[in-house]
Amino acid sequence: MTHLRFYAARALRSEPMLRSLSVPAAELDSALAGRRVALVGNARSLARQRHGTAIDGADLVVRINRAPMPAAASHGTRTDWLALAVRLPEADRLRLHPQRILWMSPKRKRLDWRSAHSPGFYLHPLESYRALMDRLGAPPSTGIMAAELILRAPCAALTLYGFDFFASQSLSGSRSIAQVPHDFAAEAAWIAARASTDPRLSVS
Where does the sequence pass through the membrane (predicted)? Predict the structure, then answer.
């Protein structure tokens, strides 16, 4: 798709045109099949842990948004996939160098041309976003959307790191829990309920 057509599709919110840039969900399922996945959140508390070796030891490492990584000992070094809901500054793109970008946000006007035309690009369907929002009673965070997406696939295991549901706030910003639109108590309950029935899911 040319730049002009892309920006026209984005401005007009033409979902079919934007969807044409995305790989199908079946391709993600195939890439995740049988693999041990580390999903790394941005909780400040992760910086006090030493999970870096375990994160890098996963078969696939998925990070979220700008993915601050203050130390290899706490955060590891690899980024295989990046789940995005914000525009990615070029410095972060070069630092993270993800093999695949997953655009999770319903805000299509934030989607940039380079991300949308990157290899293996995936656009999360609006209907999936809305269904999860209905279950949670609030807009879902990028992390919870990524967890649900991964668990839909036949992965062998999914371990969450840096998910404390905003108890320690986020490394990627200074907003308080009152300034974000998510219901983290509902998200924590969703994860706990899912982990109780799906042995693939764990939180470290």
Answer: none
